[in-house]
């Protein structure tokens, strides 16, 4: 099939690399030059809201997908007139606005932290009176990797946060004193069939995902079933097609939904080497109406993001059980440049390799 991808970052790159062995070809809409997808197919260089370019991009494609959730709604609706777009535009719209996302979680009985919409300073004061401190003030749109949000730990933080974020629709959320951050990746096919990867544990630094461990330690069947139920509810509500990731806080024995991502997700990168079929291949399978592949673990796995700088490739490749994935991006602070997957027969084997990787990354 001829597959169009809105976006030309590392996720688009890895989708194409997973799809080519299955016989598919790719076209990308990506305004930046250079980009990680250069050389992997035709690249239409235009803004995502350039409707003439969007029409040209969609010409003769069999299906369109996207690698990030800030695709303009008008562009997605225009493409849907002539070609299937997966995941559907309804999922895209839901994920683009944190308030709409939280309201959808409420409607589907998926628990979240208490929240309050904020458009004015009075709204913020009302929310603080209802939710209390500590809390998190976030922009409703365009936030990622910790951007567009401030933690309010005491009253002295409120004015600075308002000055930094006001002018945008905001959301105030109760600060969750979670025991750890988890996420789950699921896949839904056009016929409604679904597969799930195991819950994983995530560690962030400065709001950016640093380390994912798969499966998450000490997760029983109950929590896995709860997480899958949340994802099924989201998928069935919008007749979802493709990979969907759900970020979660574990608060005691409860899982609170944080955010959903209607796309392949950083916390699922370990599946490239640690699962029967990767999240990238399963997304391609889903949108092309192929049977979904096995999500079975190949052992224990971890994913370490390479952020801001990359150690010498030969040093990483010299480590047994380490699998290097680079994105062909220029280094800069806080930029994801690649990741390393580690797969072993037991958690101790994985930890030993991670310790060696940390020395390389920190040196």
Mean pLDDT across the residues is 94
Catalogue the unreliable spans: none
Oligomeric state of shown chains = single chain
What structural class is derived from the secondary structure elements? alpha+beta
- Terminal CA distance reads 45 Å
Instruction: Tell me the name of the CATH homologous superfamily of the largest domain.
Output: ATP-grasp fold, B domain
Question: Whole-number radius of gyration?
Answer: 20 Å
How are the secondary structure elements laid out?
Blueprint: E1 2-6, H1 10-19, E2 25-29, E3 42-44, H2 51-58, E4 63-66, H3 73-80, H4 89-96, H5 98-107, E5 115-118, H6 121-131, E6 135-139, E7 149-152, H7 156-165, E8 170-174, E9 180-188, E10 194-196, E11 200-205, E12 208-214, H8 221-238, E13 242-251, E14 254-261, H9 271-274, H10 279-287, E15 300-307, H11 313-317, E16 322-326, E17 336-344, H12 347-362
Parallel strand pairs: 1-2, 1-4, 2-3
Antiparallel strand pairs: 5-8, 6-7, 6-8, 9-10, 9-11, 9-13, 11-12, 12-15, 13-14, 15-17, 16-17
